[in-house]
Amino acid sequence: MKLLVFDLDGTLLERDGTLDVRTAELLKRLESVGIRSTIATGRSLKSAMNFVESLSITVPVILFNGARIFDPTSKNYLYSKLLPGHVVEKVVSQCRNFNVAIFFFIDEDVYAMNVSLHATNYIFRDGLSYHPIDDLSQLHTARVTKLVFTGLSSELNRLELLFKFDHSLEMNATRSEEDLLEVLPAGVGKAEAVKWLCTFLRIDLKEVVAFGNGENDSQMLRIAGLGVSFAFAPETVKKCAKVLLHNCGYLGLKEFVEKCVEKVVFS
């Protein structure tokens, strides 16, 4: 066990989206015995940076569900992949009959169309600030890292099916939360990013423990040496894990250490 890879929301963070100071302290104690940590999140760097700094993470972090990997030490992106401009345009055109808000992530900026009350939870949860736009003519569509759709779950379910059955689209659609549907570049995901990171760090995948609670974490849990999820996660996600915890946040981390890590950490 050399590397712990954590999803943030509903996993390493508390249920209210905050970081318990005891979590940072426990991860430091794990690092002192040779177990390093990083995060794999759907968030942007701007949204995740406060947690990266609070946790004193030095291992490269996985952002945008794997579309970008950022090195906190050098302050540079090590890996980045963009959506093709024509895919962005086609996806947006297919959404005209759906009651959803669309968020476009370009570098460190966020642009949004059709924002309604359904997007409030997402905006608050991720601390998003965005530039409202009326149409794609106000965007450089070839510079989009990912798209996020928010709305009623029923609308997102229909939209997800539409995307997945359109094989002409060079992209990957994934659900990170019940109220979110994300569109990423083809071949992008947390599992692929973890594999890239292991090659970069010269760590065997068998030495990785991955933690997550969402559909977008499933493949990462499968490919890691040990996949860890939660009793409250969807059944499809729990099936990908070998260990289930009762709580997220500090209590979940403490439960994992007591179950799976040598007692020397607590001595």
Automatic annotation (TrEMBL):
One Gene Ontology MF term: magnesium ion binding
Ranges in coiled-coil conformation: none
Domain of life: Bacteria
UniProt xrefs under Pfam families: Hydrolase_3
Gene3D superfamilies the UniProt entry points to: 3.30.1240.10, HAD superfamily/HAD-like
Cellular component per GO, a single term: cytosol
InterPro entries: Cof, HAD-like_sf, HAD-SF_hydro_IIB, HAD_sf
Stated name of the protein: HAD family phosphatase
Species per Swiss-Prot/TrEMBL record: Pseudothermotoga hypogea
